[in-house]
Specification:
The protein has 149 residues and is an alpha+beta fold. It is built from four helices and five strands. The chain has a single domain, classed as Muramoyl-pentapeptide Carboxypeptidase, domain 2, CATH 3.30.1380.
């Protein structure tokens, strides 16, 4: 293949590439475990099995986030930072299901369930749990601890 044919093929391929959307929907939740870093993906899969094994009515609700989504949640007051570990795929949130099989974030009513999930995440899988934070309690939140050193 000559140089002219090569560049013609490059330009032809560029036309086939779909443009990125102009706007990202900040209300869209990513639930894909594939968007987590590999170490956390494995832990998340094990936590899902643990939740089923212990008959805990909960699922992983959100994994990674776009900057647009993080900004949207900050505006709603659902997060306190733009430096979330969700942005790097190192965190996920768990949601519980109530008696009517509707998901809920109601910690006051379902504190015992969030506490059970927290124990599993921290003591069985070595995760950092937002329920243990001193300033902003984020009971659904789990993340990999930061590497020391």
């Amino acid at each position: 293949m000559g140089i002219i044919q090569y560049w013609k093929s490059v330009f032809k391929k560029k036309k086939e590439i779909k443009p990125m959307p102009k706007e990202v929907d900040p209300t869209r939740v990513c639930r894909s475990l594939d968007k987590l870093v590999p170490e956390l993906k494995i832990i998340a899969q094990k936590m899902i099995l643990d939740l089923k094994h212990h008959n805990i009515p909960a699922k992983i609700f959100e994994t990674s986030r776009t900057i647009e989504r993080q900004s949207y949640l900050l505006g709603l007051g659902n997060t306190k930072t733009m430096f979330s570990r969700h942005l790097e795929g190192s965190a996920f949130d768990v949601v519980i299901y109530d008696e009517k099989d509707k998901w809920t974030w109601n910690y006051e009513k379902y504190a015992y369930i969030y506490q059970m999930i927290g124990v599993i995440g921290v003591y069985k899988h070595g995760l950092e749990w937002g329920g243990n934070w001193n300033t902003f309690k984020d009971y659904p939140h789990f993340q990999l601890p930061r590497k020391k050193g």
